[in-house]
Amino acid sequence: MQRRLLAFLTGLPVALLGGLIGLGGAEFRLPILTGLFGYQVRAAVPLNLAVSLVTLMVSLIIRTRTTPLDTLLPHVDALASLLAGSMLGAYLGTGLAGRISDRVLEGVVFALLLGVGLLLLFEAFVPFKSSGHALGLLVTLPVGLTIGTGIGIFSSLLGVAGGELLIPTLLLIFGLNVKLAGTGSALISLPTVAVGLLRWRARGALRDRADLTEVVTPMALGSVLGALLGGMLLAYAPTTALKFGLGVILLVSAAKSLRDARQKHAAA
Asked: What DSSP line would sit under 20-85, residue for residue?
């Protein structure tokens, strides 16, 4: 019971804060799953993907009330190419995760936390803005496929939705405005996460019923409630201060993950 309550209580604020800054929160859940719940990185990744899938479904439903999907039609070429690439990358990334060592995977997680933390600190002072320019079809398709594949690998390898990369890509490269970029990111991330999750399950992950009932389900419920609260509080949130604070938290988490990995391998 205590484990379920802890999962719910940690899922709620992560989704709330992630929603307020335009992310799904998976990059914040990963240190919680490894640090607070004691999962190894390889076991935490598919659990994170499972929670992300539920959170993304709710986020997309909420966003389409203010940004209907038909408003994305002028950008369907960019979205389709990114989606195709990201689903391919999710398929490839899960296979890659099975071939790399725990030490390498822990290093990639450290790079994720460090990179997103620095990105949040940067954007707190220099917010991303739309380029206002759309690329031609002959450029959009290969660029979208290439970037999408990289994001898909990143997503399935680390158990995140990829919004921290998709939103800047849609803003800076494909010229969407910030509202459309957020909805487009959720639309691309949902099937990408689903592909990664199915591939992880085929490799034997998510077989432990206790993980699903004691961690994934209550954390997903907390994430849904947090996403709903985040949507209501969005107009009142000090976004710059939040990004700065959460950036610092991720940098601290990165340092802790590096220290824990070094201690584990030194003991081994």
From this structure: HHT--SHHHHHHIIIIIS---HHHHHHHHHHHHHHHHHHHHHHHHHHS-GGGGGGGHHHHHHHHHH
Six-digit token pair at 71?
Answer: 């408003």
CA atoms within 13 A of residue 151's CA, in its CB half-sphere: 30
pTM for the complete prediction? Answer: 0.85
Amino acid in the structure at residue 52: S
Cα 212 to Cα 51, 72, 194, 225, distances in angstroms: 10, 35, 16, 18
- d(Cα 99, Cα 111) in Å, to the nearest integer? 19
Q: Where does the pLDDT of residue 133 fall: very low under 50, low under 70, confident under 90, or very high at 90 and above? A: low
Tell the burial category of 198 from Cβ atoms under 10 Å away from its Cβ (0-12, 13-18, 19+).
Answer: middle
Residue 64 contacts residue 182 (beta carbons within 8 Å): no
d(CA 209, CA 239): 38
